[in-house]
Give the backbone structure.
Amino acid sequence: MANTKSPATHRTAGSNSQEPSVPGSTSTARPTRSNTLPLRHPRLPRWAGWLVAGVAAAASAIVTLSLGWGLVGWGILAIVLFGIALPVWSLLVENRRAAKDRLVSTLVWVAFALAVLPLVSLLATVVENGLHVINAQFLTYSMRNVIGEGGGVYHAIIGTLLITVAAAVISVPIGIMTAICLVEYGARHKVARAITFLVDVMTGIPSIVAGLFAYALFALVFGPGVRLGIGGAVALSLLMIPIVVRSCEEMLKLVPDELREASYALGVPKWRTIVKVVLPTAMAGIITGVMLAVARVIGETAPLLIIAGSTDSVNTNLFGERMMTLPVFIYYSYTQPGVPAEFGQARAWGAALVLIVIVLALNLLARLLGRVLSPKTAR
Amino acid sequence: MAKSIDVSDLDIFYGDFKAVEGVSMTIPARSVTALIGPSGCGKSTFLRSLNRMHEVIPGARVRGKIVIDGQDLYGDDVDPVEVRRQVGMVFQRPNPFPTMSIYENVLAGSRLNAKRIPKAKADEIVEKSLRAANLWTEVRHRLGKPGAGLSGGQQQRLCIARAIAVEPQVLLMDEPCSALDPISTSAIEDLIHDLRSDYTIVIVTHNMQQAARVSEDTAFFNLAGAGMPGRLVEMNPTRKIFSNPEESATEAYISGRFG
């Protein structure tokens, strides 16, 4: 629409322009109101953020040194000063919205740092305490006949891998088929809603309860005092199944209905449509979900303490005798290190680092598989 | 090969809601029949009932008869899967299977049903279907590439090739060009013209000019009122519908007074 202000309301340039009064702002003189759209407002210079950060850091340092606070106090004070000074400066030079934007951006970044800090600190601590322990011997020897220095976590690594793979073998088929049942066949039935609710409840089962259940189950068959690797796998699968079901359900729901219809219209029966069209399309997401479920249960200690037990030797038989796993090894190494204590505790840190590396590797593998297997859209 | 369809007194229900009421018509063999009408008048519902696709929605049912080649599609021991093998469908938005290549997409009708076809025969089917769909020259050198990597018009032609590769008696098309640009649309219309001699084609379209260009017979559906079931108002040769229709409602719709 054309500007319809009459000449009588035209204001002179002098009365309407505002000389910039705050140093550092780069506004030009305001154009007269009747001629142009109010698209521009003064802005802080690009280096405003850095300037305020530097000044806040320096001011905080002065206060910290004079009051005797440590590094953390300096950091907190600097952030608070920054979080106050920059929005206020912005409010004076720019407008309210820009000031609010800067304030909220600062808060968001601080929240992010607070969230990431514990993770970084954890990784740094584990690496610092555990890296020097890792060597070829540590990774290839068990603790058989070892007292004090020496030995390794080979038996624990084998145990963890075997039990986790067995848990996956149990939970993945059950989980995928439950998800198929919920999404493809039961979508509107009350039974499906009940099952979904129960699965949600299962995600909250405490891991020790799952371990007790597995122990009770095996004790019924084998008598009290039983310790079996496969028991640990059953306990872990109880924890894995709800995660697999939920993520598979989401992935199956993401497959668009028009693909199913295209398949039905070709005269393909429903079960074949699911097996040959829906599952392959969702496969990338399903595999990622399964790997993430595995990464989640691989570090569960409580159920394995009860049912898989602890041993010093390598045991590759899931159905016979105790089996050592990394989380249980860490527990016993740290709490019952023997004498002298530093070797046991060092081994615990080493095992913790190995466990974290395995989880990281699984997550990376999940992402890689997800990208490789996803439906391709390249020309 | 292509057969005609006789519809007698068809009612279509979604649960308790009657969506379409009392449709009786004969769709002639080896020709193109267009279904036109305002939004929500039940033409897509009717089209989907011709290959029992509406049963995909829970609670959908039908009263009446649809007879192809002397057999009622809704007879007691008729398998819907077999019906869909004889009556193919192309949808509004192209939907090639994303996990399959172009070659595999065309053969999907057989592959998904685990029918073993020797490679030479499979190649022949793919080439014949893609040629019939006017897509062969464009994709012959990249049959192994994913089906989803083509343009919209090419994807729709791929879906048509996929539908005719199983050699159905009837081909149903639910607004096949509404998601495409004018040039792709005219390519598909030429394709329909070529396919007419081998298939019975029923096409739902919002575009009346397209109905006039493409079809030999046209059926006009309408709603009696909001919330009422859709009905077949008039079915006649296309030339007659668009020049002097029998019903006044048809005339009002054609001349743009409503819909």
